Amino acid sequence: MPSPVHCPTDAVLEAYQQGHLDGGTGATVGRHLETCVDCRGRAADLSAGGVPAELAGLTDYADIRPLGRGGMGVVYRARNVLMDRVEVLKVLHPSTLGWAGARDRFLREIQSAARLHHPNVVSAYAAVRCGDGLVFTMEYVDGQDLSRVVKSRGPLAVGVACGYVAQVAGGLQHAFEQGMIHWDIKPGNLILTRTGVVKILDFGLAKATREVDAGGGPVGAFGGPVGAGLTGC
Where's the Protein kinase domain (predicted)? Predict the structure, then answer.
């Protein structure tokens, strides 16, 4: 990890996130963020409470609120004014803008999700241009992820757990039939709706089956290997 004396100040990180640094300085900060976990955390903290100006400027959306961050993306809850419904907006985190291939990977995620149409997979709605970036709009699921469900309710009854697993298996089978494998199935990526339907989140780590056949699994958001397999339902 780089020495703290080489870490950018909060002011520099904020300027980087807002796109106010010149090209050379911005590239330097971007490279630093690729290797410095502490600074990535600081950058996330600095932006966690706000909404990017470009996103706030989307006239078709109102009441935009941060929901959280995972990997390279930031997600927001918003109301689609024209459709009169709540949706999720996903964008790349500003700290990834200097990363080679980040935008291409995000676009592949969007295109992969667009091929999926199944009741147990969160639906993709659209992709729109926003400034120099992209906004991925998708279904908002009113519910809790299964990791929180188990923590709050305790171990699930065998019959209930098997029912949830069957739903997830149906969604994964559909993805496989579209040529994709989800590489990060875990309770935190499975949302239980108020009506008992389980929906799979985050096909950002999906990989085309033809790529898997060619050898090797995908690489995680920060370069680490991603393991496959259903964990602890």
Answer: 61-233
Determine, yes or no, domain membership for 150: yes
Which pTM does this prediction carry?
0.67
Active-site residues, by number, are: 184
SS3 141: coil
Task: Give the CA distances from residue 86 to residues 42, 83, 118, 136, 141, in Å, rounded to whole numbers and listed in that order.
Answer: 30, 9, 19, 14, 9
Contacts of 14 (CB under 8 A, 6+ apart): 46
pLDDT digits (tens, 9 = 90+) for 69-99: 766 778 899 999 999 999 999 998 776 766 7
In a domain, 133, yes or no: no
Check if the beta carbon of residue 94 is closer than 8 Å to that of residue 33: no
Q: Cα angle at 57 between 54 and 62, to 5 degrees? A: 125
The answer to whether position 229 is within a domain reads no
CB 32 within 8 A of CB 7: yes
Q: State which residues form the domain around 11.
A: 7-47
CATH code at position 193: 1.10.510.10
Give the total number of structural domains in the chain.
2
pLDDT in tens, 145-197: 999 999 999 999 999 999 999 999 999 999 999 988 888 899 988 999 999 99
